[in-house]
Design a protein that fits this description.
This protein has a single domain, classed as Ubiquitin-like (UB roll). About 25% of the residues lie in helices and about 25% in strands. The chain has 3 helices and 5 strands, in the order E-H-E-H-H-E-E-E. The protein has a 5-stranded mixed sheet with strand order 2-1-5-3-4. The longest helix is centred in the middle third of the chain and has 11 residues.
């Protein structure tokens, strides 16, 4: 099973517990999650359904390549991490 986790700073704003699921691409995985939690989609995707600029997604520790259509492939046991960039000074 693929595991998708969201950083605690995202969880502060919207419930986003870790999920285990089956998916072939990042888009498949996120769409399954958003179907059950549509509020989370607004924090992750912009109005064009692309990753927001302040969001990073990693598969097994490597940043995804396709931020527009999220077509990066997943392995059956991939670990997907969704992070929100933080700023401050």
């Amino acid at each position: 099973m693929i595991t998708v986790t969201f950083t605690p700073n995202l969880q502060r704003h919207v419930a986003s517990p870790p999920r285990e699921l089956q998916a072939n691409t990042v888009a498949d995985a996120l769409h399954q999650i958003f179907a059950k939690n549509p509020t989370l989609a607004g924090y992750i995707l912009d109005d064009q359904h692309r990753l927001r600029k302040n969001i990073a997604v990693f598969i097994d520790g490597t940043m995804i390549q396709d931020r527009n259509t999220l077509s990066d492939s997943l392995q059956p046991s991939s670990d997907v991490q969704v992070l929100q960039a933080l700023s401050g000074g």
